[in-house]
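Extended Data, panel c. Modelled sequence:
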Amino acid sequence: MGLGIGIVGLPNVGKSTLFNAITRAGALAANFPFATIDKNVGVVALPDERLEALSKVFTKGERVPPIIPTSVEFVDIAGLVKGASSGEGLGNQFLSNIREVDAIAHVVRCFEDPNIVHVAGRVDPLDDIDTINTELILADMGVLEKRMERLKKTAKASKEDAETLELMTEVYAVLSEGKSARLGSYSAPIPKDFGLLTIKPMIYVTNVADSDLAEDNDMVRQVRQFASSEGAETVKISAQIEGELAEMPEEDAKAFLEELGIEESGLSKLIRVGYKTLGLITFITSGEKEVRAWTIRAGTKAPGAAREIHTDLEKGFIRAEVIEWNKMVEAGSWVNAKSKGWVRTEGKEYVVHDGDVILILSGI
């Protein structure tokens, strides 16, 4: 299972600078609107210190098992502008790109800099948020209007169409109030095939000057308060600092963060919050051949985890041997872990937990 996060925002808020930093993909970053015309995609390894610790457990002499982390796909989507829902500023293309991701990271400018032009001529994070959210809401309303018009012609003869029309009408009413679809209460879950943008989880990313990383400025506090009212998460970053960190060796980057009084990079925070927002967890397979992380949804049972490794493992699933990753590190090997009674045998109903080290036993 992959995780796709779309980075959106108004032009010149720091989206492409952030994208360049976290993917080192070299997306064009320039001080004018629409520097990003086509979407840029970068795959980033999920930082996970557990894998390094487990790799040491299974190292034999000079033979170190390779580490294969799970990954996150970041999509840098060109800057939206007012009127995007009706095609302004290549809006149709941008909105289409957003439909392909799992979650949206809305980058909001929370710094003053006369050398970086703001598309609205002033820095107002709440106004920026309203502009983007309004365009997403209007785009969703347009999609529903077309489908509802068709369903009205068939609803009388089809119970299924009538139920779909009723649900769409409920959603449309919420959107008409200027609210995102994810904030409403409905008679049934909204199907994915509705194709709505505002049903996707939103993460607000406040882009600040490095001097505001340790303490929130007033603009960041405003965004946090707004995000909290929606039940959304906020991540504070400095795109400029992330760019500097991306060029440093790991140890130097850690020292630099400590100097700034920061515990983790913006990338790590954004990925961690993305996982939390989407309800994702990681389980691990480990041995002398490799140490590998796998992404699944929280609540997935053992056969479902086996499917992530290979579909045949799910079909022939017999049982799973499970141990917490830290217990495996403490034991030093599967043999020692089993002798201590730390390895559990679990069946088809076992719900996998984050950080589980799992060995799947299959009949195929």
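Residues 25-38, 87-91 have pLDDT under 50 and may be disordered. This feature is highlighted in the accompanying rendering.
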